[in-house]
Design a protein that fits this description.
- The protein has 17 helices and 14 strands.
- By secondary structure, the chain is α/β, with parallel strands linked by helices.
- The protein folds into two domains: 207 residues, 3-Deoxy-D-manno-octulosonic-acid transferase, N-terminal domain (Rossmann fold), CATH 3.40.50.11720; 175 residues, Glycogen Phosphorylase B (Rossmann fold, 3-Layer(aba) Sandwich), CATH 3.40.50.
- The protein has a seven-stranded parallel sheet with strand order 3-2-1-4-5-6-7, with helices on both faces. It has a seven-stranded parallel sheet with strand order 10-11-9-8-12-13-14.
- Strand 1, helix 3 and strand 2 form a beta-alpha-beta unit.
């Protein structure tokens, strides 16, 4: 029966792929299209550089969807790379770029996750011949799970099931249950996720609570040559989505203060769009603003500007940029997206403002309960920023509490590593 459902799933997957493929192919820069399509189809010979089929080290294939997952797994991947050859797959281009930056000195092969079709998955498994496959969070790809589990251990780490995902999977429990049974080990972030996995059919004897590895972040302390020259206070809005840039710009411009707004859009393909928006807003303003793209900002700035707006047109730098800000605004939280990671500003002890849509990060409830962040809707964002600017003691208190929660919840990486060593071995 399961094979019948898998066949039906694959058929629908291929139909969807026919419609989505042109958009996915052409949205990528020309220089990576060939590699993208070959790897999505499971052909990798042309990309072999750091991994060697003749190596004495066993290989482990780890899948991390995008930037957030790559950052969360960084510490774990670096430790595993001391003993194994790592194949790291991502889905997004930004995930690829961040992975290449973070692991440039390690014996790690970075690839695109192949299409979830039998041929592509079997080709990939045969070529790399991994000792185990590790998936992250909610990455349940049926063909990948089915064909991997037939021969080698299949593991899910940093596992989570949002309320929306749980409700969706519950409707097709007849299909999901056999897939979850195939995991050799599931490491869940929290008790609530463990219970949801069990309700969907996972084997409770193979389920462990290890915590959230996103709390184990390590961010690089970068000294920016211009950081002492831009006007303060600095408000940094990170990983923003459309139309958040406009509402954040409006809030900043209406404050009429000396200071700097740093805008970091979540997706690189929107850099040009956001740049146009910023220039339009500045042109319509009666105030004098200086505008810079991060990649073009001079080492020393003119002191004539009372206010400045900086567009972050570079990926992989946001975590380090939070260090220089006075107030952090979390993108993806003022629209029904689910929010972005608030732990990076907490790492640097920065006060955090987020919108009401943070359901992808349920631990935000602990932040709110402990008074470690401020949650407001878009209509009260301006007042909240103004309030924090005027009350430095409040900024300090928020930041200290956020950092305390981050420190208290760290340690998931070590717990996960211990279990991986038991299940994978040498």
């Amino acid at each position: 029966m399961q094979k019948v459902f898998l066949l039906i799933y694959t058929l629908f997957y291929l139909i969807a792929l026919l419609f989505l493929f042109p958009k996915e192919y052409f949205k990528r820069p020309k220089e990576i299209r060939t590699r993208w399509i070959k790897e999505k189809l499971g052909f990798f010979k042309h990309t072999l550089s750091k991994t060697s089929q003749s190596s004495f080290k066993h290989k482990i294939w780890i899948h991390a969807v995008s930037v957030g997952e790559v950052i969360a797994l960084t510490k774990l991947i670096k430790k595993l790379a001391q003993k194994y050859e790592i194949i790291l797959s991502t889905i997004t281009d930004t995930g690829q770029k961040v992975a290449l930056q973070k692991f440039s000195r390690y014996e790690i092969k970075i690839i695109y996750l192949p299409f979830d079709t039998p041929c592509a998955i079997k080709r990939t498994l045969k070529f790399f011949n991994p000792k185990a496959v590790i998936l992250t969070e909610t990455e349940l790809w049926p063909n990948l799970i089915f064909f991997t589990s037939k021969k080698i251990p299949l593991i899910l780490i940093n596992g989570r099931l949002s309320e929306g995902s749980f409700k969706g999977y519950s409707k097709i429990k007849f299909f999901i249950k056999p897939l979850l049974k195939k995991f050799s080990l599931i490491c869940a972030q929290e008790e609530i996720y463990k219970k949801r996995f069990i309700k969907l059919g996972a084997n409770k004897k193979k389920l462990y609570i290890t915590g959230n590895m996103k709390f184990d972040i390590e961010l690089k302390n970068i000294a920016f040559t211009w950081e002492n020259f831009i006007p303060r206070p600095i408000i940094l809005a990170g990983s923003t989505h459309k139309p958040e840039e406009e509402l954040i710009l409006n809030a900043f411009l209406n404050l009429s203060i000396n200071g700097t707004l740093i805008l970091a859009p979540r997706h690189p393909e929107r850099f040009e769009e956001v740049e146009t928006l910023i220039k339009t807003k500045i042109a319509d303003s009666n105030e004098k603003f200086f505008f810079y793209k991060l990649t073009e900002i001079p080492s020393t700035l003119s002191t004539e500007a009372s206010a400045c707006i900086v567009l972050v047109d570079k990926i992989g730098i946001l975590g380090s940029l939070y260090r220089i800000c006075d107030i952090a605004v979390i993108g993806g939280s003022f629209i029904p997206h689910g929010g972005q990671n608030p732990l990076e500003p907490a790492y640097w002890k920065k006060p955090i403002i987020c919108g009401p849509y943070m359901h992808n990060f349920p631990f935000i409830q602990e932040f709110l309960k402990e008074g470690a962040c401020i949650m407001v809707d878009q209509y009260h964002l301006q007042d909240s920023i103004k309030n924090l600017i005027e009350e430095p003691k409040k900024r300090f208190t928020l930041a200290e509490k956020a950092h305390k929660i981050l420190s208290k919840n760290s340690g998931a990486t070590e717990k996960t590593l211990k279990l991986l060593r038991e299940f994978i071995g040498s």
